[in-house]
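F.,

This is the one I mentioned.
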């Protein structure tokens, strides 16, 4: 019997360790114009996508990240009509956003057409409902170029990017965040993926410092995602309305009921509010970077 292949996540090589996954079958592997893409079947996590040696999505735990990156900003805002996703080519977050009936328009700007094409083939549970939804528009472009030139305005911007390497690097820059702020309507919310602070502290603190300069309020919320090794993952939250990340459970629960209480597997009004209670080492890193609590 042929030796099973193991695929390693090389994201933390500089820290001297690797997470390796036994592979049942490689479904798709290619060097695209932007990054190395491998999709494989894993005995426990199911389908898994890696870009440039970093885990992007696994079928078994994707719901945690997708729900927290979409329902937290949308229920914090409360009446978002126009939403922009930067990155997110697998369409997992788009599928969650479109569960909100208040949303009238969703634009997704993904740099790599190969990611969208392979998602149509391998993640139809996301792409089918999304591409069938008239509110959805898929744009292939560099997210930084898009927000720098568009005259569109949004209530919520979700940056579902890769880590600050390769094509994703520019999405952690001050110029990009400033352009996102320019595209936000009054009371708008920007959320960003900021890695796992235990292993990638600067991926969070560098964003927090930039949020401090650009927004009335900037901080992060957390969730633990098994395939994003390292404990809590941090998601940046910025707005010119400092009340939005401090709303009580009763307000969020009311908005959830009004939205039809659609089924979720991780997000709940209680988890939403609790996610902003940062573990002390993260809270201190954020406070140091932003000068605020
Ligand atoms: N959840 C994953 C994570 O936390 O690492 C991210 C998933 S999503 C697949 C990341 C997407 O960002 C990829 O499809 C990648 O092609 C896209 N991306 C990277 N840089 C980009 C850029 N400059 N503009 C638009 N999309 C970009």
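My design for it:
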């Amino acid at each position: 019997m042929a030796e099973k292949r193991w695929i390693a996540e090389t994201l933390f090589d500089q820290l001297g360790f690797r997470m390796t996954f036994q592979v049942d079958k490689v479904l798709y592997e290619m060097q695209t114009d932007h990054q190395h893409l491998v999709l494989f079947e894993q005995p426990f996590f199911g389908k898994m996508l890696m870009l440039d040696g970093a885990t992007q999505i696994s079928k078994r735990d994707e719901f945690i990240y997708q729900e927290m990156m979409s329902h937290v900003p949308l229920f914090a805002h409360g009446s978002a009509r126009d939403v922009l996703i930067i990155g997110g080519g697998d369409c997992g977050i788009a599928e969650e956003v479109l569960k909100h009936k208040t949303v009238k328009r969703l634009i997704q700007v993904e740099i790599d057409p190969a990611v969208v094409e392979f998602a149509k083939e391998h993640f139809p549970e996301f792409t089918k409902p999304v591409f069938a939804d008239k509110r959805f528009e898929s744009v292939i472009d560099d997210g930084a170029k898009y927000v720098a030139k568009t005259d569109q305005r949004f209530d919520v911007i979700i940056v579902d990017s890769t880590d600050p390497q390769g094509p994703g690097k520019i999405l952690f820059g001050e110029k990009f965040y400033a352009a996102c702020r320019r595209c936000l309507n009054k009371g708008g919310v920007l959320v960003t993926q900021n890695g796992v602070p235990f292993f990638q502290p600067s991926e969070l603190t560098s964003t927090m410092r930039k949020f401090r300069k650009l927004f009335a309020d900037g901080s992060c919320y957390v969730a633990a995602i098994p395939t994003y090794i390292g404990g809590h993952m941090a998601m940046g939250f910025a707005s010119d309305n400092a009340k939005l990340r401090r709303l009580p459970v009763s307000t969020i629960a009311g908005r959830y009921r009004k939205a039809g209480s659609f089924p979720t597997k991780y997000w709940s009004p209680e988890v939403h509010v609790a996610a902003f209670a940062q573990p002390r080492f993260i809270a201190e890193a954020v406070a140091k970077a932003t000068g605020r609590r």
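The longest strand covers residues 184-193.

Talk soon.
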